[in-house]
Hints:
Elements: E1 2-5, E2 13-17, E3 23-30, E4 37-42, E5 47-54, E6 61-68, E7 74-81, E8 87-92, E9 97-104, H1 110-117, E10 120-127, H2 133-147, E11 156-159
Parallel strand pairs: 10-11
Antiparallel strand pairs: 1-2, 1-11, 2-3, 3-4, 4-5, 5-6, 6-7, 7-8, 8-9, 9-10
InterPro entries: LOR (IPR007612), LOR_sf (IPR038595), Tubby-like_C (IPR025659)
Family: Belongs to the LOR family.
Amino acid sequence: MNVKPKFPTAHARKKVNDATGRHLFDIIKESLHLHTTFSIQDESRKKELMEVKSEWSIAKTKANATFTTAHGTPVTLVMEGKWPGHSVDIVDKASGVSARARIERKMETVRQSFGEIAGQQTYHATVAPNVDTALIVAMCVCLDEEKEVGENNGRCCTIL
């Protein structure tokens, strides 16, 4: 999946496309919130799909993603870990299900190192069966945007 900035916009907005280039959703950074908040929206239907909100935490990264399933069940997934540079786990604490996904940022090749210098981020996501990969991609981008405030304008990323 590829994530690219959308210009010009009043808010920080990123477009998320699948591997074939088909637009999936937009990620919009909302203003006027105490905690950094992102809205994941389906532009064609003008509908919010998910909200990602950071939390105050000492010595670790923490954020919550809330959405409603197709069956109408509200879900909150929690991202916790060390970011940037290491990894975060995404867990569904309400249902007692352990890690639904893990997102890592590692530079393994010279090409990836050059990409970092050029403003291109590469992440590795390990996703549990029956978990929507696009949902995990959105959460990864929100986490990166929140932690890289001021340094990410015009940057794009690839999630493998």
